[in-house]
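User: Structure please.
Assistant: Input sequence and predicted structure:
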Amino acid sequence: MSAHQMILQDALKEAGEIKGYDMKTEAEGYALSPLERRQDYSVLCFLAGKKARLFCSLLFGRKEIKIILLIVKDALDKVNKVVWDVAKYPVGLDSRVNHMMKLLDVDTPGLRIVGIYGMGGVGKTTLAKAVYNRISSRYKASCFFSNIKEASTKFDGLVALQKQLISEVLHDKYTSIDSVSQGINVIKRRVHSKTVLIVLDDVSDVSQLQALAGERNWFSPRSRIIITTRNKHILNLQGLKEDETYQLEELNPKESLQLFSYHAFGTAKPIEKYVDLSMKVVRVTGGLPLTLEVLGSLFFDKNGSKEWEDLLERLKRDQSKDVHLRLKISYDGLDVNEKQIFLDIACFFIGKGKERAIHMWKDSHFFPSIAIKVLLQKSLIKNKSGEFEMHDQLRDMGRQIVVQESPLRPGLRSRLWDSAESLEVLHNLEGTSNIEAIALDIGKKDLTDLRTEAFAAMSGLRLLHIANVNFAGDFTCIPNKLKWLKWEGCPFKSLPSEFNLQEVVVLDLSFGMVSEVWNRDVSMIKAFGRLRVLNLMDCKHLTATPDFSNTPHMVKLILDRCILLAQVHESVGCLKNLICLSMRDCYQLKELPNSICELSSLETLDLHRCSKVSALAMHVGDMESLKRLILDQTKIKTLPDSMRQLKKLNLLSLDGCRSLTELPEWIGSMESLRNLTLRGSTVERIPESIGQLTNLVRLNAERSSIVALPHSIGKAKNLRRIYVDHTAIEEVPDSIGSLERLEIFSLDGCNHIKFFPSSIGLLKNLAELSIGATLGCTGGIRELPESFGSLTALRRLYINLNAELLTVPSSFFQISSLEDLSAHGCNWLEGVDGNDFSKLSSLKKLNLADGNFYTLPSLLL
């Protein structure tokens, strides 16, 4: 064996061991696909251990080739892993992560299951997320199941979790599972084939583990399972040994003071005058991260020592009590409206968008804008991507407050969120005027019949969320103070005329059987004078919208996937306050009434895949507030001239418009346009006036019919992303160099482009460039300019299959920022000195598959 081969074999062995592969068994068991057999000379440099260089001959055996391909394939599976948000201030987290890494021992063969247990709020989920982020890239598949306790209480909750596991691990969204036992059989039979990382967060019952990770032999060796729970007994029942469990302790005094200080003062140490008081607070909180965060936020806006002393005295009184009572100090400091909203979120709106709830709270005079700001400041809630989030301890505290209103009689409580309790109260006619909100979802399999009389005593009811429930009886029994009615799967063709909905601000009949929302009875039409949101999504029997004459306050109308909807009532023009009109996938809709142009407040009009709509109203430009216009896959032939008046439009989406061949010259007058997308459209020409779009940030014309980029594009100074992949563009205009803010330029499959202008080197912020040719096609880039090396911000370069590119300029290897280089199937590699690659000091990923070369590039490690 030659010295080169020995070096390779040692390096492969070390790399394989790091990834958990056995050289002999993996090579013998790894079957090469036809594509992989064609790539026997594919190369991805897997850097391992303390080797200073990796340099070898490609004249090695099939077993080594298989190992290389296995590692290549494995590395390519690591992209797009989900990264979880951890803590804003991760005090004390590193040492706990390191302890978990020792327990998991990811470099050792054999399955490992590790359970983290400890009291609520001690940081179990935070730790699990941090560990997941650190090691998930090592595994073929990984998934994080958050809040299993809450998820499993929902209808078919365990089945839904099993489906999620199968979807995320096996990438299979179509396997039908009707029961937990069936799900167990699928998991046992199929998941064993993959090395996986699974986190089961907040497990409260052993049945949840039995459904998702019942036996060790369900999983392949080297898989890792992490379980978090408040109850160590669950881990014992699962058969975990002492060295497979980690009792997460509270923070030590130093860590506690630091975390408290971050939340109370925004610094790692307390302000000098508050040092003693801060230490006293920390001593009575018990080192619980959640408590320190909430109480730190509570003290944040207390300006005097007297206020601190008063709160400290209260804390001392509750020191010996459970964490809920300590957290409740923050709740007790809220005003009445803030408490109402906090309890509503804890019981009904975690993980839900805030928009619709705000309408209900506004109409109930809870002043939600102020209240939500206070709840955020006090760390009682979080707002992520427009959705409410809340720690499970805070959620449980809120729900416990409601339960304590009447521990033994649910009908005397203010809120009923548990479907079993709701059903019991309604069946037994135990409702009272105390009840403000009810949720009842009995699943999709059966339609439960209830009597309307069950609501007769609930005079204070303002929120009713029911799914797959049928009511019989007199609908005048439904309280007239109702603000929110969500009735999924409503079985009626129209709402009963005696249904008193004068106070309703949110009406959601999604997935219902309605063919007309309300009948033509005058009193019924007038009943919706306060309505703000109407959601008729997936009402597949609806053929026409209702008369909107008496709903002047509506701000959102959702008609998505009403597949038989053919007519929008002319009265839609009366909705002067409407902000969003969404009609996605309304396949039978051919036109909108001219009155649509009277919607002066409308900001979003979404007609995505309304495939029979062929024209917009002539005066659509009168919608002066319009910001987002989505016309994807419609039959629009032209854009009305009046659209030039849409001075606030920032998104124009024309994806898949196969009847539209050109954009009008006046498009340059849309001064606010930031995003223009033409993917898959038949638009052939982008007008020169595009240069006037000084706010344009993103242009996407992938797979469209455009044949050229206009020279004026260089004047669109704010352009950051251009996608023109798989188009017939023949050249890149010299003006491209003027786009100083351009970050992504994608031209994959533009086989007619032969050269780049030298001005491309002026793109100082370009981070990603894709110029790959199409497999099997002649053409592609022939030459790169010497200025290419001036792309000092370039991190990702994809230059695959450019067979006519025989050399690259010497400046190419001066791009020290380059992290990811893919040059699959390129001929220019033949003349490159392998040492040149070592100049790419930031390179992390290299793909030279099917390249014409005889030695691997030498890379400094």
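The two ends are 25 Å apart (CA to CA).
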